[in-house]
C-alpha cells in the first residue's frame, strides 16, 4: 500500500517537477535538452549493458576509476551512465567521450522506469553511494536485474528516517542484491533498515582509489609551469556565501604573499558570474578560465569550466575543499590528497565523515574554524615549504594505504555480468 501511495504521489507531482525543470532551464539551457529522457525515453541500447547511476558530479567522479576498470576488464560491455543533473552528465562526457553512453536518469514513476528499462535493457544496475529510488530498484528486481549499491554510506540520521517508513523501505532494501559499504558503521545501518546481512560487505571507499589520468597530469603540469613558481592555493566545490569568505581570506593571504593566486572553483555554474562580480568588487585582479584569460597577472583565477577540478588541484600548492565552511557537509578531500598537497576543510564535513576521520588520524588534513583561521594556515604554509610538503605527503600516504576497494567492487560486478 505504501509503495502504491508513493507512486501516486510521484505521478501527482511530476507536472510540477517538469515545470520547475523548464523554469531553471532559462539560465541553464542544458536542463531543457533531452528532457524526455527523464520520462524514460532514452536511445535503445544493445549488448551487455551495465547501467551506472551517479546522481551528480561527485558521484560521477567517484565512478570514473570503476568504469575505466570495467572497460579494461571487459571491453565488450556497454556502459550506460546516468545522472540527475546536467553537471553530472557534463562531467561524465568530459572524462569518457564516446567510450560510454549517457542519459538522464528517469524520474521514479512506474511508467518512466518501465520505459527506461525496456529501452536500455541493463544486465546490472550499479548505484553510486546511496541513491535509493523505490520504483527503480523494485522494477529492476522484478526483471532479475541485480542492483548494487557501491561506495555506499548511510548516516545515522538517514537510517532513522528509513526506519520511520519501514513499511516502504524494507521491501526496497530486500530488493538490493549487494551493498558495498564504505565502513562497518555504514554496513550495520544498512542491515538495520532491512538489507540481508549476507548481502552487505565492507569494501572501503572506492574514492581512495584516486585515478589521475596522464592527460590530466600533463595539463596540470603545463598550467603550473605557466604560473612560474607563484604560491597557488585552490578552493574547490565552493557554495554560496562561502565564496565571499574565501575571497576575504585571500585578501589576507595577499597581505603576506603579494604574488599568491587563488584558484576558485564554485560547485554550481550559476555561481560563476556572481563570484566573478564579487571578486572584482573586492578589487581583485580576475581571470576566467572559460574565456581563456591568462592567469599570470591575476590574483583570482575563476575555474568556471566543467570537469577540470581535478586538473586544477594538480596545479596548486594546497587546497581547501568547499561545502564545509557552511553546513553543506563538505566534498571529497581525496581528490587533492591524491596529488600529495595539504588539504583544508571547514568544520562541516558530515558527508565524508569516514574519509575525513582516516585523514585526521594520520594528520593528512587540517580542519579550520573559519576564513580567518584558513587564511592564517595558508599564509603559514606558503612560508614553510618543508612543512607544506610533509603534510601533502601524509595526505597522499592515507590515500595509498586505503586503496583496494575498487578491485573488490569490480570483481563483484564482473561476476554478475
Automatic annotation (TrEMBL):
GO terms for molecular function: Kdo transferase activity. InterPro entries: Glycos_transf_N, Glycos_transf_N_sf, Kdotransferase. It is found in: Cell membrane. Coiled coil: none annotated. It is an enzyme of class 2 (transferase). Pathway: Bacterial outer membrane biogenesis; LPS core biosynthesis. It catalyses: lipid IVA (E. coli) + CMP-3-deoxy-beta-D-manno-octulosonate = alpha-Kdo-(2->6)-lipid IVA (E. coli) + CMP + H(+). Residues 34-210 form the 3-deoxy-D-manno-octulosonic-acid transferase N-terminal domain. Keywords: Cell membrane, Glycosyltransferase, Lipopolysaccharide biosynthesis, Membrane, Transferase. It comes from the Bacteria. Its EC number is 2.4.99.12. Signal peptide: none annotated. Belongs to the glycosyltransferase group 1 family. Involved in lipopolysaccharide (LPS) biosynthesis. Catalyzes the transfer of 3-deoxy-D-manno-octulosonate (Kdo) residue(s) from CMP-Kdo to lipid IV(A), the tetraacyldisaccharide-1,4'-bisphosphate precursor of lipid A. This is 3-deoxy-D-manno-octulosonic acid transferase. It comes from Marinobacter adhaerens.
